[in-house]
Variant 3, Amino acid permease 8 (Pisum sativum), 256 residues
Amino acid sequence: MAFAGSDKTRSTSDIAWNMLVAIGDIALAGAYAQIAVDIQDSLKSSPPENKAMKRANTLAIFTMTIFFILNACAGYAAFGSNTPGNILMSSGFRKPFWLLQLANAFIVVHLIGAFQVLVQPVFRIVEMMAAEKWPNSSFVTREIPMNFGKIKYTMNYFRLLWRTIFIILVTVLAMAMPFFNAMIALLGAVGFWPSVVYFPVEMYIVKQNIKKGTIRWIGLQTLSFFCLIVSLAAAIGAIHGLGEAVGKYKPFMYKA
């Protein structure tokens, strides 16, 4: 079966590098594992947090997998090996305009929420370090109560200033990088094995008191080693893609 947009002139090595980058992009989907424990800790004790979290994870991963597979299959069926990293901003199609813009709006809403959740550990670490270094500074430690009708919250000058600067820097950096796929793949490759595989596996081994050398121990270690190889391969592919992109593209000149 021939796919529209298939590129027969693309070399086998290019396809192989792109496959490694794609693996890194997929690995980034596991980033939620870093905050899953914090989310579980915020749940009520009835029903048990671990059971509620297990059901939520199962449903979320199933739904996410279905959407990702549909998106990947539809993109490849339409564009073949030339499928762009951001299919909504590609030159493949521009109509219907309202549907594309609606999809982009949904992505913005989705990413705003995801960014707020994923960046909280960074905010927390920096603010704790600042409070420990300057405990007597009212700029750093003072909490100012504020009320808007029935809504009550506290404001901190340091938190307001540094978070604003952080958001501006991250936004400018994201706009300046024209190599979307390779950077996403590198982030996914770096974070996948240690946070999604290695630490959970080691904690499970300790908690279940699995003896070294047993079949279960060997199986878990084999799984961890295999995922390490996958992460290293994706990282190599991402670095290769970044190296090529640096020589081709200019900052703030995004090419889908």
